[in-house]
Amino acid sequence: MKKEKKTPVNREGWRTSKKERINYYIGDIGRTLEGYIVTSFMTLFLLFQGINLVKISAAILVVKVIDALDDVIFGFFIDKLSIKNSKLLGKLAGEGKYLPWYRATFFLFPIFTVVFFLMPQDASESFKIIWFMVTYLLYDLSYTLVEVPMNSMIVSLTDNVEERDSILQLKGILSAIAVVLAGIIWMLLISEHVGLSMRLVAIVSSVLFFFMMLPLATKVKEHNVELKNTEEEDSAEHYSFRDMVDCVKTNKYMFIILLSVIIYGGLQTGSSLGTYASYYLYGDSMILVIPIALAFIPQTIAQLNTTKLTNRFGKKKVYLICGLTGAFIYSLIYFAGYKNFTLITILLVLQAIPGNISTIAKTFFTPDTIEYTRYKTGKDCSGIFFSLNAFINKLTTSISSSLGLFILGLSTWIPVEAESFEELVQLNVVQPQSALDTLWIVYMLIPAIGTILSIAVMFFYKLDDKDVQIMAKCNAGEITREECEAQLSRKY
């Protein structure tokens, strides 16, 4: 008799196939990069439009206030409604819980991204601000329609916690690599060395990302849709808005994570100004690629070992130790001053290793808190939680962009209107020293403070890793609720 070849699936009891995971990773990379190109280019794109920085910072906040409801509302509907029963979208949606929403809406994401970057260069300032507000809201809505089911899917793909953590780790690593590589390529293409416009780069990239997101819609299946060991077996499909509010109130651990995300994301004022800072502080828009390139291999090796570290020492301990180490090095960079580029490069490479381990480890917490809520309430509120997470990520990104532009606008910064860095070089606008000092504060000091504060909040996270694994088995029906409660380290 021929011996069956052991694969990661049958050896470890994983629910997903290798092909499904590959398509999931590719789709997630496409989704990540589609969002990242706007995150990466938005502030720079608006700076190149010559719009008053204080005005555009106010516009960014306004659109986020308007957008505040759609993420949460969509999270409610994705958990409550079954789009596969829709007469209009049912055939397109297909089977599953979260995948149907993804299939029916993912193509809107690249379409609205392209529309955002079609802002007329020669229009008036008022028209540009209106264009930004309208098209960004459309982009942001499409972002939610894709991100919420995409992230919620990690719970419905499998009930195996080890498999889930492995998927999250590899997904995080692949996304991080893709972001670094895409960022370098984009920076080169729009730099003064090549001279392409951001508009052209964004449009071509969006077409590519559409084809990357397509396989996820057709070749992946959810294997953990039904929730077991609840008072009513169909309770996951039929519940009210109040039930969802109760789910959110129950999940104190999710609140801690979201608070940490708010503090961190809201103060990352330098994340969208890297290329601009590189050009004005060092005279070349590509110079800050050097530390990114040097840190690439060591940080990737560190990321690949995140699961091993968290399995041995625990998720929280790894996150806190690596996070605080990275934050301390991050703080030193500001005080080193931007003129000492060699020292800054060394510190950035050193910071990338613990900083990236901490980032990957933090992604493991959210599915754990979802599993905790499923166990406590018998309700599957993954959509509402991931919609809150999506909303907060987008909100804090806009707050950080708005805050950075607002602070820069209060300085002696001179507005410049250009199509590319090549044109910026030709204009030869020299910024005052006081404006450059403000740019360094926005780029490095404020993000360092945000990193330290966000890590401090996570000291209050008390959900035990082993208890989550037991809860997951209970939720999947592998053990009874009585057996689960007997095995937990404490009463939750």
Structure notes:
With 492 residues, this protein is an all-alpha fold. It has a single domain (18-487), classed as Growth Hormone, Chain: A (Up-down Bundle), CATH 1.20.1250. The protein is 74% helix and 0% strand. The protein has 22 helices and no strands. It has helices at 8-12, 18-48, 53-80, 90-93, 99-105, 108-116, 125-157, 161-190, 198-219, 241-250, 252-266, 274-282, 289-304, 306-313, 315-336, 341-363, 365-377, 382-410, 421-427, 433-457, 465-475, 481-487. Residues 1-11 and 232-238 have low confidence and may be disordered.
Weakly predicted, low-confidence segments: 1-11, 232-238
- Major β-sheet profile: none
| CA-based shape | globular
Can you write the helix and strand succession as a string?
HHHHHHHHHHHHHHHHHHHHHH
* Fourth CATH level, the homologous superfamily: MFS general substrate transporter like domains
Task: Give the averaged pLDDT, no decimals.
Answer: 84
How many helices does DSSP assign? 22
CATH architecture: Up-down Bundle
CATH topology, what is it called? Growth Hormone, Chain: A
Specify Rg, calculated over alpha carbons.
Answer: 23 Å
What number of domains?
1
The fraction of residues assigned to DSSP E strands is: under 5%
Distance between the termini: 49 Å
Structural class, please? mainly alpha
Total beta-strand segments: 0
Helix content: over 70%
CATH class: Mainly Alpha
